[in-house]
Structures are given as structure tokens and as C-alpha cells.
């Protein structure tokens, strides 16, 4: 099964519920990179993100028989992903483990060394600012700006209203601007 082919997800889920476990492999292949990236942005540490992403798919595998297609599979996995990352953050906090900063620089299309340096500096400033946000603020801005989810999808993932999502995004953007201005002034 090619993951780029248009697939009837409800049909695959029915197959899985009927005992055929092969559709789950397609689900993992289709969504593994996006789930890992979500975890990477929310947890910062690459190893923690990898562990969380694996946990997301384990939870999804166990819960897929209970999945109801009122929500999209994509949104359902993101909800599991956000909740798993929040659980990891709580556990890390209770164990007094501090997040590590990103080790990788953001990719850039510009080949010049000056542009690469500027991109790296901007990327680092954004990562530092993201790390200073609360877990809820980081989640909402990553889901919107990095993952490109709609307000409605974010509301579904975070189990809140669209209005709350819009106000959180607005406040988080302002907080990021303030943090970045503070960085540039200091």
C-alpha cells in the first residue's frame, strides 16, 4: 500500500477493528514524521521526542478499536501526541530533568554563509523563545505555525473552543514578539 495513494481511512480503521492489523502499518508510515516533528517541537530534546512519538503510536494502536470517525484520524493522533508530550513534560518536571536546547540548525534555502548565519541566529532565538513559553502556549503555536492545523483542528486536538484557540494564538504570538524584542535589545 503506497502511503501517497488516496486511502479511505474509515475503511482501513474498520479493517483494523475486524482484526486485520496491516492498516496500522499504513497509519504509522503516513503520520510518523508529522508526529515526531510535533513531539520534537513540544519536547525540544530529540530523544524525548522519539520516545514520545513511539508512545503515541503504541497508544493509538491500543485505542484504535475505540476510535470513532467523528474526528479525523490525523486530528485524533495529534491529540494523543499533544497529551503524550504534556505527560512527558510533567514527568520530566517531577524528576527535575531539564529540557535540552535544539542541537540542529534550521534548514535554509540560501547558500551564502551570511544568510546561513542569520538563519541560524534567528532559528536559535525562536527556539529559545519557544522554550520560555508555557507548555500550552507552545502547543498551540506549534500546531498552528509549524504543523499548519486550522483553528478548528487545534480546538479538537486540545479539546477546547475555537475562540479559546484564537485568543491563545494571539497572546502567544504577542509573547513571542516580546521575547524576541527583549533578546534583540539585550
Give an overview of the whole structure.
The chain has 186 residues and is mainly α. It folds into two domains: 1-100, Rna Polymerase Sigma Factor, Chain: A; 104-186, Orthogonal Bundle (Arc Repressor Mutant, subunit A), CATH 1.10.10.10. It is built from eight helices and no strands. The radius of gyration is 18 Å and the shape is elongated. The N and C termini lie far apart (53 Å). Mean pLDDT is 80; it is low at 96-111.
Descriptive terms for the model:
186 residues, mainly alpha, Rna Polymerase Sigma Factor, Chain: A, 2 domains, elongated
Q: Which structural category fits the helices and strands?
A: mainly alpha
CATH architecture of the largest domain: Orthogonal Bundle
**How many β strands by DSSP?**
0
- How much of the polypeptide forms β-strand, as a percent range? under 5%
How does the overall form come out from the CA principal axes?
Answer: elongated
CATH superfamily of the largest domain, by name, is: RNA polymerase sigma factor, region 2, helix turn helix motif
Q: Provide the succession of SSEs.
A: HHHHHHHH
Amino acid at each position: 500500500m503506497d502511503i501517497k495513494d488516496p486511502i479511505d481511512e474509515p475503511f482501513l480503521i474498520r479493517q483494523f477493528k475486524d482484526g486485520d492489523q496491516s492498516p496500522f502499518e499504513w497509519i504509522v508510515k503516513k503520520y510518523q514524521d508529522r508526529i515526531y516533528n510535533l513531539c520534537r517541537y513540544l519536547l525540544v530534546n530529540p530523544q524525548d521526542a522519539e520516545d514520545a512519538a513511539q508512545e503515541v503510536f503504541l497508544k493509538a494502536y491500543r485505542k484504535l478499536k475505540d476510535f470513532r470517525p467523528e474526528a479525523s484520524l490525523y486530528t485524533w493522533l495529534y491529540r494523543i501526541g499533544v497529551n503524550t508530550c504534556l505527560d512527558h513534560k510533567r514527568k520530566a518536571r517531577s524528576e527535575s530533568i531539564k529540557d535540552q536546547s535544539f542541537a540542529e540548525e534550521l534548514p535554509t534555502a540560501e547558500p551564502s554563509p551570511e544568510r546561513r548565519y542569520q538563519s541560524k541566529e534567528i532559528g536559535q532565538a525562536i527556539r529559545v523563545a519557544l522554550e520560555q513559553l508555557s507548555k500550552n502556549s507552545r502547543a498551540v503555536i506549534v500546531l498552528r505555525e509549524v504543523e499548519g492545523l486550522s483553528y478548528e483542528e487545534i480546538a479538537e486536538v486540545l479539546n477546547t473552543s475555537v475562540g479559546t484557540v484564537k485568543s491563545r494564538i494571539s497572546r502567544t504570538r504577542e509573547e513571542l514578539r516580546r521575547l524576541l524584542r527583549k533578546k534583540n535589545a539585550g
